[in-house]
Write a structure and sequence with these properties.
Blueprint: E1 2-8, E2 12-18, E3 22-29, H1 34-51, E4 54-61, E5 64-65, E6 72-73, H2 86-94, E7 98-102, H3 103-113, E8 123-128, E9 132-138, E10 141-142, H4 164-167, H5 170-181, H6 187-195, H7 199-223, E11 227-231, H8 240-251, E12 264-266, H9 273-282
Parallel strand pairs: 1-4, 4-7, 8-11, 11-12
Antiparallel strand pairs: 1-2, 2-3, 5-6, 8-9, 9-10
Helix pairs in contact: 3-9, 5-6, 5-7, 6-7, 7-8
Length: about 280
């Protein structure tokens, strides 16, 4: 069974064919409006339909995948994705079963069923991209919460006014640094400049590490998971955990009694986790 799996993110849209493993990856940058997004998705989907016998299309989406209405509820960095009948549009256009799941839940499913977290009963998943999303796992089950906002860690106000999705995102860090310098930089470029000792880049990355660690600290002492599993593009950075544990050590010496150092794992599948998890949703997992 060939499933076309698509991950809609705030910065880019990724796709692949899933037949037990991923193949034939494609990607485009997330456009600024719904019309262009639909056009780009339609072009992407037609590419696969011409090459493969697609039995279902599965999406990983920002926000809340409302399985009753078929719409994407909640909030995300792609505001327009919430403004149309998501499932109905693709069902009517392609006459195939359509599935969707929240992006963090998708990543969580991939790691629980096939990745690093199969042995964990109580965990938090943080997916760090344009924003910060997440999932709470308790006794091996996803806990969506009363209003399906469980795991929306990015909405945490980590400096009293600004959200973790802003202060804990390498994408937003790069935008802020680019504005300061009057030139466009990616997150990877800012990290490289920081490693080379460029003062403003060091300041920017240190702030990012601090707020990510602060968010992790707060979640550890609110939900008390066994592990916090990190996913998203930033996890490709080999020394990420070193920086986060360094900042956590500082935070835990602010004066509180903090007996538990959060245990952090890096997700096995990285940027592919959302694609795999969406496909697993189509398989009924």
């Amino acid at each position: 069974m060939a499933i076309l799996t698509i991950d809609i993110g705030g910065s880019s849209v990724k796709s692949a064919i899933y037949t037990g493993e991923l193949a034939d990856h494609k990607q485009f940058y997330s456009p600024e409006n719904l019309v262009k997004m639909q056009e780009n998705l339609d072009e992407m989907i037609m590419y696969y339909l011409k090459k493969y016998d697609i039995t279902a299309i599965a999406f990983s989406v920002p926000g809340i995948a409302n399985q009753e209405t078929g719409r994407v509820d909640g909030v995300s960095s792609l505001r327009y994705i919430h403004d149309f009948d998501f499932i109905a549009y693709f069902k009517e256009t392609y006459q195939r079963p359509i599935y969707f799941e929240n992006d963090a839940n998708s990543a969580c499913k991939a790691e629980v069923h096939l990745g690093i977290a199969g042995d964990i009963k109580n965990a938090l998943f943080m997916v760090i991209g344009t924003g910060v999303g997440g999932t709470i796992i308790s006794n091996g089950q996803i806990q969506p919460g009363e209003h399906a906002y469980g795991g929306e860690f990015g909405m945490m106000l980590v400096d009293g006014r600004r959200e973790l999705s802003e202060l804990g995102s390498a994408v937003h860090m790069a935008r802020k640094y680019s504005k300061l310098k009057g030139k466009e930089y990616t997150g990877e470029e800012v990290f490289a400049l920081a490693e080379a000792g460029e003062v403003d880049a060091v300041t920017a990355t240190e702030e990012l590490y601090h707020y990510l660690a602060l968010g992790i600290y707060n979640m550890q002492y609110t939900i008390d998971p066994e592990y916090i599993v990190l996913g998203g593009g930033i996890t490709k950075k080999a020394d990420l955990l070193d920086h986060l544990y360094r900042k956590l050590a500082e935070i835990m010496n602010y004066g509180q009694r903090c007996p538990i150092m959060p245990k952090i794992r890096i997700a096995k599948f990285g940027n592919d986790a959302n694609l795999i998890g969406a496909a697993l949703t189509a398989e009924g997992k």
